[in-house]
Amino acid sequence: MAAPWLQRWRGAYAGPSGPLRLVRLHGVQRSSWRAAHAAAGAFGAGPHPGPPQRAANPGPGPHPPPVATSREKHARIVQGRPDQPAEPKVLRISIIGAPNSGKSTLSNQLLGRKVFPVSKKVHTTRCKARGVITHEDTQLIILDTPGLTSPMKAKRHKLEAAMLTDPWDSMKHADLVLVLVDVSDHWTRNSLSLEVLKCLSQFPHIPSVLVLNKVDLLKKKIILLGLINELTEGIVNGKKLKVRSEFEYNSSSPAKTVLKVTQTPPPENRARESPCQLETDKAQEGSSLDNSSDVKASESSLDTEAREQKPYKYGDQKNRKGWPHFQDIFMLAALNGEEVDTLKQYLLMQAKPGPWEFHSRVLTSQSPHEICDNIIREKILEYLPLEVPYGVTQVTELWEEGPSGELIIVQNLVVPRKSHKLMLIGRRGALISRIAQEAGQDLMNIFLCDIRLKLKVEVKS
Ligand SMILES: Nc1nc2c(ncn2[C@@H]2O[C@H](COP(=O)(O)OP(=O)(O)OP(=O)(O)O)[C@@H](O)[C@H]2O)c(=O)[nH]1
Ligand SMILES: [Mg+2]
């Protein structure tokens, strides 16, 4: 089990007259949606043994609802009148960030069911899509977006127009924006991309939250403190940060790390300075933190108090690295769900009174066919070099309910070259079988029914 070391810092805790809070948070269990895959028959995946049971009365509650398998039924549910509670609350959340920062992984984890495609290749998400979380009287609408990219890169990689415009469009409908940064990427983690800064500057009135993702990949967690300082320009929630860390080892209690983030209020409030302290468990194995003796030592201190606070000029993004208007910061590992529940609770708290947009039975606005295409494409992206997935056209030939209630899907993957066909099929059909098997398993977890998925590969005539 992952060590429960992660922590969250909430600037809101340190309001000028706000109370001091010591926050100790624990990680959550690894998500179960990545089920183990059984062996498959060549070119197809048969019905899977022991599918998850469809709830007798799917709807609101602790389990996210399944997606309807028929396009018509799904459209009826999505367009149907929401089952408004007496005092509904709602929050539309746009998730933006560089390609591959983990936006779709986080969206899936928040939803509790995988409905968005995820892969290690960039530009997995091709257009914006909505996920819906309904919890008691609150509805969160998550807008997963394609990674923010520049028109030049979009042209070079022949990306569809929607990939440039959709993240911006999603901001128009958002009440709050989560900005994801992949902290494991040495090249990009020290600054927000120009596109992210442009997007934030264009919508400065939308509250923004910084989410540092993939912290599980960091050997030295201490660098998070420096990153926070750079990505926020040392200012969060209108106050300057004074980031300091202390590592403490107490032989009578489990070893733990205490990270201290102190906020310095604006000059007029300085007399009421209120620190916000965070406490975490000891960093994971591999961390460079020294806990070998009964010591209390200050390992690093990033004091931003003395630094001149530059006013943020909109349109001046080229010279900037961070955004000084974040209202909060989270550090998490979306892949294994670490601290995702903490973020979810926070988002639920941010919801404002307002009518729900969807019925509580809606999990995503994507149609069943879109979900299926995306999931199959995800596998092709995951296992093949980029030139192959980019050339594949997916044609669904059959989508019908079988005699035992299973969903039968036959999809033809049309490729431009014979060499691509051979790569996609793999030796003795091993790769295409694996793709069908894994996609079938994912679809079963989305639709909560047996799936018979058959994939064919054809060269474009
Ligand atoms: N180790 C680790 N990997 C992660 C984490 N979150 C996401 N990933 C991986 O990062 C890769 C990209 O994840 P996606 O969710 O597809 O990223 P994205 O931002 O939606 O990417 P685009 O749609 O291409 O913009 C995948 O291989 C994920 O498994 C994390 O917290 N830890
Ligand atoms: Mg994505």
Give structural notes.
There is one protein chain. By secondary structure, the protein is of the alpha/beta class. The longest helix has 18 residues. α8 packs antiparallel against α11. Helix content is 25%, strand content 25%. The N terminus is likely disordered. It folds into two domains: 295 residues, P-loop containing nucleotide triphosphate hydrolases (Rossmann fold); 92 residues, K homology (KH) domain (GMP Synthetase, Chain A, domain 3, 2-Layer Sandwich). It binds guanosine-5'-triphosphate and magnesium ion. The site of guanosine-5'-triphosphate has 24 residues, from α2. GO terms for molecular function: GTP binding; ribosomal small subunit binding; rRNA binding. Belongs to the TRAFAC class TrmE-Era-EngA-EngB-Septin-like GTPase superfamily. Era GTPase family. InterPro entries: G_ERA_dom, GTP-bd, GTPase_Era-like, KH_dom-like_a/b, KH_dom_type_2, KH_sf_prok-type, P-loop_NTPase, Small_GTP-bd. This is GTPase Era, mitochondrial.
